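Translate structure to sequence.
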């Protein structure tokens, strides 16, 4: 009887905590490292003309623009010129100096976007620490939640958090402003029509759908974060030279693409960004290009479809996206059970991007093909990383590591001298 009970208990435990998180689309997905195909990554430091890139100048003027153009045309989609000039206007719609029991000031910003075709607005919320001397460094977070919703009020049970679970108090206490940008103002989560939202303001006569090389959903969200940055540049409370962009999952992909293109972002953090984020396409581990374009056909641009099951033909892979952020600090976060996002592929991107950081004279401590031990955050490195136990979420350990990384890289190393 005792034996039977312990056998039942064993079965219960192993079922209740599987080695990885099961996904609805698990069929035909490889999670077995032994079955990862052999692949050769495209070289970071050889130009498409076969020229060796040996100096920071050559990286900046030849290879980086080449790689960004490939990501724009083949993966995420380019932002076209709008048919008629776009007006961008900022409205500070509401200011609440007593947010979170007086710790923070909350500003609700409306960014009005308009031209001859029409007008629309995207909403951004800015939380500023009341006690800190201004201007303050800032975290801009790509958000899944509507910034107009109750999710962005303080939580009644945990006053240091927002109702959506974001630990706003941690950021405010450490002297950071926190900014939330909601992308569905511009484009819906799984948009398939592109008749509403921002796209329509960009179509010349006769166009009603993005061309094969034009912006998909992720590129659109990245564009939105850049418009939020336009606003931050005008906000006297914020030091716009010290803005970190971050996001989780789909928004982690977006954070990387945002920072890769826009050098105004001083630092980037991708939490469990996986496929089309930090994970390498060629490993085909967890979510693949095929899975992604089947379920979310327009997160990427239509040109990306051509590489389904032809990943080896891509002239780029995701380590090159991280490299485009260099020499600015970038942080990659993975979860051991988050195998859909291919934690090993996420790590390898970070590791291989190091080649460009070193060319630019920056140190990265990711020097081996195996990641640092589980639960150890590598912060004092231009390419930071951690892998923790557990699955697809942002936990306290992750938030603290992101803050530690930002403290290390964005805060002055020696306190300013008092006269
Ligand atoms: C899906 C998708 C992932 C994405 C995730 C998310 O699982 O396949 O690529 O990262 O949603 O955004 O939460």
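Result:
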């Amino acid at each position: 009887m005792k034996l039977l009970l312990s056998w039942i208990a064993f079965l219960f435990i192993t079922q209740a905590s599987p080695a990885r998180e099961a996904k609805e689309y698990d069929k035909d997905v490889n999670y077995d490292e032994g079955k990862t195909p052999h692949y050769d990554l495209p070289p970071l430091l050889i130009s498409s003309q076969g020229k060796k890139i040996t100096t920071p100048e050559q990286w900046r003027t030849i290879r980086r623009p080449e790689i960004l153009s490939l990501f724009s045309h083949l993966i995420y989609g380019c932002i076209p010129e709008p048919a008629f000039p776009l007006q961008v206007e900022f409205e500070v719609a509401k200011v609440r100096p007593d947010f979170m029991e007086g710790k923070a000031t909350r500003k609700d910003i409306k960014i009005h976007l308009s031209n001859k075709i029409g007008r629309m607005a995207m909403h951004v919320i800015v939380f500023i620490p009341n006690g800190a001397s201004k201007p303050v460094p800032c975290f801009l977070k790509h958000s899944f939640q509507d910034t107009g919703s109750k999710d962005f009020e303080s939580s009644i049970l945990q006053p240091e958090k927002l109702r959506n679970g974001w630990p706003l108090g941690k950021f405010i206490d450490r002297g950071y402003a926190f900014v939330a940008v909601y992308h569905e103002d511009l484009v819906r989560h799984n948009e398939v029509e592109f008749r509403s939202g921002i796209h329509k303001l960009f179509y010349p006569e006769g166009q009603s759908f993005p061309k094969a090389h034009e912006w998909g959903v992720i590129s659109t969200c990245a564009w939105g974060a850049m418009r939020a940055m336009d606003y931050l540049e005008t906000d006297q409370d914020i030091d716009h030279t010290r803005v970190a962009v971050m996001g989780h999952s789909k928004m982690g992909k977006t954070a990387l693409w945002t920072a890769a293109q826009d050098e105004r972002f001083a630092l980037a953090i991708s939490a469990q960004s996986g496929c089309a984020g930090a994970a390498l396409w060629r490993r085909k581990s967890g979510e693949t290009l095929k899975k992604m374009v089947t379920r979310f056909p327009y997160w990427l641009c239509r040109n990306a479809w051509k590489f389904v099951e032809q990943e080896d033909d891509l002239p780029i892979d995701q380590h090159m996206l991280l490299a485009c952020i260099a020499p600015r600090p970038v942080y990659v976060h993975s979860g051991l059970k988050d195998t859909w996002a291919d934690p090993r592929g996420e790590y390898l991107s970070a590791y291989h991007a190091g080649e460009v950081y070193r060319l630019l004279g920056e140190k990265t401590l990711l020097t081996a093909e195996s990641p640092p031990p589980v639960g150890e955050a590598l912060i004092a490195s231009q390419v930071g990383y951690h892998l923790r136990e557990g699955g697809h979420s942002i936990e306290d350990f992750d938030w603290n590591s992101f803050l530690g990384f930002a403290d290390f890289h964005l805060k002055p190393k020696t306190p300013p001298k008092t006269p």
